[in-house]
Write a structure and sequence with these properties.
Blueprint (H helix, E strand, L loop, with lengths): L2 H12 L11 E6 L5 H14 L6 E4 L8 H14 L4 E6 L5 H13 L4 E5 L20 H11 L3 E6 L10 H13 L4 E4 L5 H13 L5 E3 L1 E2 L5 H8 L8 H7 L6 H21 L4 E5 L4 H10 L7 H6 L1
Parallel strand pairs: 1-2, 1-9, 2-3, 3-4, 4-5, 5-6, 6-7, 8-9
Helix pairs in contact: 1-10, 2-11, 4-5, 5-6, 10-11
The structure holds flavin-adenine dinucleotide.
EC number: 1.5.1.54
Catalytic activity: (6S)-5-methyl-5,6,7,8-tetrahydrofolate + NAD(+) = (6R)-5,10-methylene-5,6,7,8-tetrahydrofolate + NADH + H(+)
Protein name: Methylenetetrahydrofolate reductase
């Protein structure tokens, strides 16, 4: 972040809380495919609650090792068919041949889905070093190139403000991001992070590398630090000590934890906004209320049903 940006950010931070957020924010949401009827009901409750906020798109994850291939497809296709929202399908390279992955992508195209979040993925067993399938796409950049050969998909890829754990450092990570964008992706969505400064430093490095694509910050509202820490280590995100302190003594107070979670995430978005960020991607974990509350604090309001349907 430059001195000027720092000055601007500081000035914005001195303004009254959330008072300067006035309807120029773009949002998107991530869901995961449900495993049971109960989870399906919860997902659709979240989808219907968040739909009036008119997100730019919503995405649905692909289980480790491609384990949710059918469920991801069914969820994405249904959102695309039955709601006013543009659905994006996550797709990974893990344990599949190119032909199999191309087939999945063809099915998305046939279902009217035009946006793919193209990822390498991780091995099904946690901690197992990544091994490309002998007949598959070797990494996300190769997958992006493969998808663009099939159809003119809109393609988003992953980015890591605090570095991907397997990368050889910031420069290698940035080279890899550049390869994915050069191959045909038009946007990067970041891994979650809890330090706006980490995002700003990453944004500066990205700009210095001549990358102009959107770097959409991924926002994870955390209401359970222990659970988040379990998977944060494996995905290149640090959980700061202040977060533990904020949740101390709240184990038996789930409602208070939710309020704290919303406050932390909204405050982080406000700081990002003060540094010029206008678009936010929320990891919802299929629960609407936290994301809804944060969007509300950011000045995002539900639109009338007719307006949402016409968009
Ligand atoms: P890549 O961009 O291919 O990079 C992986 C690593 O390999 C990096 O360290 C990179 O630097 C290195 N690398 C790549 N190519 C080369 C090369 N030629 N030479 C040297 N090094 C190289 N996972 C899922 O299973 N399902 C999901 O739905 C899912 N959604 C996600 C959404 C977002 C927004 C993010 C940020 C992550 C998501 N992930 C998902 C996790 C992701 O699959 C893992 O982080 C995975 O370990 C890396 O995927 P990638 O697409 O970033 O891989």
């Amino acid at each position: 972040i430059s001195i000027t940006q720092l000055g601007e950010a500081r000035r914005a931070l001195e303004e009254p809380l959330f008072a300067d957020l006035a309807g120029d924010i773009g949002i998107s949401f991530e869901f995961f495919p449900p495993k049971s009827e109960k989870m399906e009901a919860q997902l659709w409750d979240a989808v219907r609650t968040l739909e009036p906020l008119a997100p730019d798109f919503v995405s649905v994850t692909y289980g480790a090792g491609g384990s949710t291939r059918e469920r991801t497809h069914a969820t994405v296709a249904r959102i695309q068919r039955e709601t006013s929202m543009n659905a994006a399908a996550h797709l990974t390279c893990v344990e599949a041949t190119k032909a199999e992955i191309d087939q999945v992508a063809e099915e998305y195209w046939a279902a009217g889905v035009r946006h793919i979040v193209a990822l390498r993925g991780d091995m099904p067993t946690l901690g197992q070093p990544y091994q490309p399938h002998p007949g598959g796409y070797e990494n996300a950049a190769a997958l992006v190139a493969g998808l663009t050969r099939l159809h003119p998909f809109e393609i988003s890829v992953a980015a890591y403000p605090e570095c991907h754990p397997e990368s050889g450092g910031h420069d290698a990570d940035l080279d890899n991001l550049k390869r994915k964008l050069d191959a045909g992706a038009s946007r990067a969505i970041t891994q979650f992070f809890f330090s706006p400064e980490a995002y700003f430093r990453f944004r500066d490095r990205v700009a210095a590398a001549g990358i102009t694509a959107q770097i959409l910050p991924g926002i994870l509202p955390v209401s359970n630090v222990a659970q988040t820490r379990k998977f944060a280590g494996a995905c290149g995100a640090e959980i700061p000590a202040w977060m533990d302190r904020l949740f101390e003594g709240l184990d038996d107070h789930p409602a208070a934890r939710q309020l704290v979670a919303a406050t932390i995430a909204a405050e982080m978005c406000r700081r990002l906004y003060a540094g010029g960020v206008k678009d936010f991607h929320f990891y919802t974990l299929n629960r609407a209320e936290l994301a809804y509350a944060i969007c509300h604090m950011l000045g995002v309001r539900a639109k009338p049903a007719a307006e949402v349907a016409a968009a």
